[in-house]
Description:
Elements lengths: L20 H8 L7 H12 L6 E2 L10 E3 L4 E6 L1 H4 L13 H24 L3 E6 H6 L1 H12 L1
Parallel strand pairs: 3-4
Antiparallel strand pairs: 1-2, 2-3
Amino acid sequence: MKSMSETQYLRDHRSPIPKNEAVSRVMSANKEKDTAPELTLRKALWAMGIRGYRKNWKFVPGRPDMAFPSKKLAVFVHGCYWHRCPACKLPIPKNNSDFWRVKFRANKLRDKRKIKELQKIGWRTMVIWECEIKRDLKKETRLIKKALS
């Protein structure tokens, strides 16, 4: 098995070449599914006895992080950095800032489109931010429980 320094990162040309290899490694390690905030929230819901959700359910628009099909409830767990949390107001990266502005704007537009598509077919949606999970996990799980009842 290769060490991190020996790993050759394959470029998919969706982003500019980073100026710092350490930054490249960190960005490459970001996950699309089963992120730490998602796992934390799901574990807390499970502990409360809340079951019946489907992870990244492909049978509705937008593949919500958690879908409760019987209740027509979609829950999105948004990372503050990638989805641009309005409370955290994280700075745009200094390198390749034009690229990142466009990327983040596209992410936000995609998020809005997913929610509209779900609402159009009669689903309720919730967005839970990474910082909210860190700040008050019990509150967020209670909100989901209330939405399900």
